[in-house]
Amino acid sequence: MAQNRSASARWHDGIPGDSNGNNACMDPTQTKIIELLREVHLLAIKEVERLNLRIAELENEYRQSTRNAVVERPQAQPSIQADEKLMNDTQVAKFLNISVAGVRRWRTLHKGPKSLKIGAAVRYRREDVEDWLGSCRAASS
């Protein structure tokens, strides 16, 4: 009866063999190795599924613990006093009644009031802005 099978029935996934997955080109040892590899593959898939479920459980536990936890926030730092106030580009522009772009252009050309770099932030001391403004008045007289 095996001889009466059609040619397509003897081929499985492009490999010649019978319907049990045995390849006509392989000896029994190779067939056994393939069967063991398939079993290992199935075990690995089951283990991955088990680990994914465990990850989901841990994520849910973490979400619940963070919802129920009381978060203590650090106290806000006291604001800078008015007499030692630092100003940003927008505040300087408003103080001088010019555009923010003008303040930034002066800074890049080193023509405006002295500026401070604090990390990525640019700040101006109020007294530096007032001194610079006073020097502009003296120069124009």
In whole angstroms, the N-to-C terminal distance is 116 Å
Secondary-structure class:
mainly alpha
Task: Describe the global form.
Answer: elongated
Order of helices and strands: HEEHEHHEEH
Strand arrangement within the widest β-sheet reads 3-5-4
Quaternary form:
single chain
Number of domains: 2
Low-confidence spans: none
Number of E-state strands:
5
**Alpha carbon gyration radius:** 39 Å
Q: Average the pLDDT over all residues and give the rounded result.
A: 80
Report on the biggest sheet: 3 strands, antiparallel
Helical content class: 55-70%
Provide the β-strand percentage band. 5-15%
Can you count the helices? 5
Draw up the topology in text:
Layout: H1 7-10, E1 11-12, E2 15-16, H2 28-68, E3 86-87, H3 89-96, H4 100-109, E4 116-118, E5 121-125, H5 126-140
Antiparallel strand pairs: 1-2, 3-5, 4-5
